[in-house]
Design a protein that fits this description.
CATH class of the largest domain: Alpha Beta
Largest sheet: 5 strands, mixed
Order of helices and strands: HEHHEHEHEEHEEEHHHEEHEEH
CATH architecture of the largest domain: 3-Layer(aba) Sandwich
Strand order of the largest sheet: 1-11-12-10-9
Shape: globular
Number of strands: 12
Radius of gyration: 21 Å
Structural class: alpha/beta
Number of helices: 11
Helix content: 25-40%
């Protein structure tokens, strides 16, 4: 629907399309990379404790308790931490405040599809760098002049990891613009680039509590980087929304960061399930990309990706299918609980045997 009351900008936008949230009975939902395990009991208790008369009061605009918990976990100074309403809001502030320098920014041709959306919203020029034939990010291709570089690690939707040594080599060469590493899935098998923020003032690392800490419904994201980068994000935030996180979100997220044992237990469970799922998909004839995320990216040489997606849906199993060039035969499959994964494999086996 178009409206004569819309601004020209609104007419030009092509919004991000989130993963479907269907309301179907007995659904095996493996399309939005949600964690199959619930949040830390300590996080739930902290949120319950925050549910009281104090909700009539505004939350701490600096979310100091949460920033301290993040700083403790990563052994950085609190001045290097920024928090926001989900990593997507943090990313929006990054595009607005750190990636508008005239030159095109660089990101992969197959990556998180919100990046070009933000470019359209904020008028940021961009250039997409093709993944190599193995669907890996080749950072040696990012040596041209740019207004900034951003990519997920591991990449989405492929799940392929870029080694931290390659990121450091890029930082040594690219000193004149901000390099943003979007680590939404890093806790499922990768090495974080956060320690490099102590050495490289142009590095910003983005993370979320939606995946590895099972708090997608709470909407908490963060950035870690040099205080000058953080000050830019704070200026944007305080010109947009000074209170992005509520009292319950601050309390729950801080407790989740402090509950290291639960975090390690659940991420290990997901990693173990991913290994099993990859083996089972390979046994069914799928080509599976090496994943360091809580999802796998797989295609079957003998079956169309769209047809497989629809056949699974008819069996109440929902996965994500992208129609973009080079990946239109792939299914992105969230690593679910062992029971969900077994239901997926059983459905695929029935489909492939028809």
């Amino acid at each position: 629907m178009m409206s004569r009351f819309w601004s020209p900008l609104v007419h030009s936008l092509v919004p991000y399309v989130p993963g479907e949230q269907p309301k179907l009975a007995n659904l095996v939902k493996l399309n939005t990379n949600e964690n199959p395990y619930g949040p830390s009991p300590a996080a739930i208790a902290a949120m319950q404790a925050a549910l009281g008369d104090d909700l009539r009061l505004y939350p701490d605009p600096d979310a100091d308790v949460l920033k301290q918990a993040i700083a403790r976990y990563y052994a950085v100074d609190k001045s290097m931490v920024f928090v926001g309403n989900g990593s997507d809001e943090v990313l929006a502030h990054v595009f607005h405040g750190l990636l508008q320098h005239g030159q095109p920014i660089l990101f992969p041709d197959i990556t998180y599809s919100f990046y070009p959306v933000y470019c359209g919203l904020y008028g940021v020029k961009y250039r997409q760098i093709p993944l190599d034939d193995s669907f890996s990010i080749n950072l040696s291709d990012y040596g041209c002049r740019n207004g900034g570089i951003i990519f997920p690690n591991p990449n989405a939707p492929t799940g392929v990891l870029t080694p931290v040594a390659h990121i450091e080599a890029l930082l040594q060469e690219n000193t004149g613009s901000v390099v943003v590493i979007d680590e939404a899935y890093i806790d499922f098998g990768g090495e974080t680039a956060v320690p490099l923020t102590q050495q490289y003032p142009n590095l910003l690392v983005i993370q979320t509590l939606s995946k590895s800490r099972s708090l997608a419904g709470l909407r908490v994201g963060l950035a870690i980087g040099h205080p000058e980068l953080i000050e830019a994000l704070d200026r944007i935030k305080n010109s947009f929304n000074s209170y992005p996180l509520g009292r319950m979100a601050i309390a729950g997220a801080a407790a989740a960061f402090d509950d290291v044992d639960y975090f390690r237990h659940t991420t290990s469970a997901v990693i173990n399930s991913r290994v099993t799922l990859c083996n089972e998909l390979a046994a069914l004839g799928f080509d599976v990309l090496p994943s360091a995320a809580n999802f796998v990216f797989a295609r079957h040489p003998g079956h169309d990706g769209s047809t497989l997606t629809q056949a699974l849906r008819e069996r109440s199993v929902i996965v994500r299918h992208f129609k973009a060039p080079r990946i239109d035969q792939f299914l992105r499959i969230t690593v679910g609980s062992p029971e969900q994964n077994a239901a997926l494999v059983s459905a695929l086996r029935a489909i492939l045997q028809r």
